[in-house]
Amino acid sequence: MFTTALAQRDNTQLGALPRDLFAAIESLKKELNAVILAHYYQEPDIQDIADFIGDSLQLANAAAKTHADVIVFAGVHFMAETAKILNPDKLVLLPDLTAGCSLADSCPPQDFADFKAAHPGHLVISYINCSAEIKAMSDIICTSSNAVKIVQQIPKEQPIIFAPDRNLGRYVMEQTKRDLVLWQGSCIVHETFSEKKMVQLKIAHPQAEAIAHPECETSVLRHASFIGSTAALLKYCQESPTKEFIVATEPGIIHQMQKLAPHKQFIPAPPMNNCNCNECPFMRLNTLEKLYLAMKNRAPEITMSEEIRLAALRPMQRMLEMSV
Ligand code: 13P
Ligand code: SF4
């Protein structure tokens, strides 16, 4: 306990660091038999040192399959928690333990338990962007890659609660033509895009195609010619003959877009104000320095009670089975 607290403090104080962080991280990777899993919203340096980069579903699959002893999760808390749910015997490290998620936070467990109790007979499908406690209260987990596919597999007469993202929920309702009871949560990053500025940008770049993540509001989604998870957006940009894209999701993804299609142009969709609020402040808490220190100190570590883990594992496994 004391060691973890001490190490956490060190990770934010960033004491003495090696000159070549990349080399030091590579060497710790071998020493620990560690794998670095990174989300597309991480800063470019972290994406470049990662063993695997992906969207939430790809990362959950990678975490389920890894043979490494240590998982270093370069993402946010609920993602590292998911890796721990799938790997109780592995050490799961998160470079900054305070890297949370506004969407996960918009669904407090006690309030959700009351909501569930108010809707008896409903199947609970929860977006992976939620805490282990919410997962433990769910029947099936989904991600933005498989939400539509999972809802389509549920018999039509079965009522469903969809939590916590109202925007993804609305999008799934539209795609499946089903009525879902939505928890009213949202992501501060994806709700920051401005419809007005998006339209102005489309006028200024008439050849560009607008693409968006389904966590965006309907007013933004209606201007997109393609909607998908981060991995789906990346694939679409590579395969489409279009040379210019307006990208309505966290701009961290543009690093991979640019790498995979260097001859194309990617324009981040503009936020409401002249701020950087389209960058996820939680994802950006992880840095290469903190990642190095987490590996060196073997902390901060993700832990949870076995009772919650087992309850959260069941809907996670259902998702993995239903999305093959
Ligand atoms: P995906 O990884 O499913 O695209 O979700 C994006 C996101 O907001 C992760 O926090
Ligand atoms: Fe959460 Fe939104 Fe950040 Fe994803 S982008 S981690 S949903 S706050």
TrEMBL record:
Pathway where this protein functions: Cofactor biosynthesis; NAD(+) biosynthesis; quinolinate from iminoaspartate: step 1/1
Q: What is its EC number?
A: 2.5.1.72
Which reactions appear under catalytic activity for this entry? iminosuccinate + dihydroxyacetone phosphate = quinolinate + phosphate + 2 H2O + H(+)
Keyword list (alphabetical) reads: 4Fe-4S, Cytoplasm, Iron, Iron-sulfur, Metal-binding, Pyridine nucleotide biosynthesis, Transferase
Q: What class of enzyme is it?
A: transferase
- Give binding positions for [4Fe-4S] cluster: C101, C187, C280
Question: What SUPFAM superfamilies has UniProt attached to this entry?
Answer: NadA-like (SSF142754)
Localization, per the record, is: Cytoplasm
- For the ligand (iminosuccinate), the binding residues are H39, S56, Y127, I128, N129, S144, H213, P214, E215, T230
GO biological process terms on file = 'de novo' NAD+ biosynthetic process from L-aspartate
Q: How is the cofactor bound?
A: Binds 1 [4Fe-4S] cluster per subunit.
An example of a GO molecular function for this protein is: metal ion binding
Needed cofactors, names only, are:
[4Fe-4S] cluster
Say which family it is in: Belongs to the quinolinate synthase family. Type 2 subfamily.
Its annotated function is as follows: Catalyzes the condensation of iminoaspartate with dihydroxyacetone phosphate to form quinolinate.
Q: What is this protein called?
A: Quinolinate synthase
Q: Which organism is it from?
A: Hassallia byssoidea VB512170
Gene it is expressed from: nadA
